[in-house]
UniProtKB/TrEMBL annotation:
Gene3D superfamilies: Jelly Rolls. This is Crp/Fnr family transcriptional regulator. It comes from Dyadobacter fanqingshengii. Residues 30-113 form the Cyclic nucleotide-binding domain. It holds the Pfam family cNMP_binding. It comes from the Bacteria.
């Protein structure tokens, strides 16, 4: 819980009364590997902060292939924020890649925090902007680099993930087949 408050305080000032109020709205959620935090075709119900574990954002393309867009690990927000805020149907899945423990907020509680704490919306705006910039920073090299360089970038950006998540998810994230991925890993060793 302290990790969550420390994270939020990077983006703005809150006093103890305010942080206590925020924490009073938080619930703990545990997900097993492969459980969904949010599903395509449904309205996202929660905003989460990942205390333990790894999730991935993924979707199915028009050929029915599963595509991993990105990963989120500990001490980061997990949310389909735009669709959560607008309460519209999600087009992608947020799935636990490992067992996960999250602090979560319902839409009602999230809105109540925003309506009660002056400056909360500015703080969450900065948090979302930061999350978006991180995502773009991690994704944009994947467009222009060759597969080996993409994998080396993945290791650099997610040093602790390679041994924690299925290689099939990493291959999907990198936009290559599992066979190509195996070859690349073999050549790097």
């Amino acid at each position: 819980m302290e990790a969550f408050i420390n994270y939020v305080l990077q983006f703005g000032n809150l006093n103890k009364q305010q942080t206590d109020f925020i924490m009073s709205k938080a619930k703990t959620l545990e997900l097993h590997k492969d459980d969904y935090f949010s599903e395509a075709g449904k309205i996202p119900k929660l905003v989460g902060f990942l205390l333990e574990g790894v999730v991935r954002f993924c979707y199915y393309n028009n050929k029915g292939e599963e595509i991993t867009q990105y990963f989120v690990d500990e001490n980061n927000f997990v949310s389909d924020q735009q669709r959560f805020e607008a309460q519209v149907i999600a087009s992608e899945y947020i799935q636990a890649v490992t067992s996960c423990k999250l602090l979560v907020f319902s839409k009602k509680d999230w809105d109540e925090i925003g309506n009660t704490i002056v400056g909360w919306n500015a703080i969450t705006g900065l948090i979302m902007k930061n999350c978006l910039l991180k995502t773009i920073e991690r994704r944009s090299p994947l467009v222009s680099e060759d597969a080996t360089t993409r994998y080396l970038s993945f290791i650099e950006h997610f040093p602790g993930l390679v041994n924690r998540i299925p290689l099939s998810h990493i291959a999907s994230y990198l936009g290559i087949t599992q066979q190509s991925f195996s070859r690349i890993r073999k050549n790097i060793r």
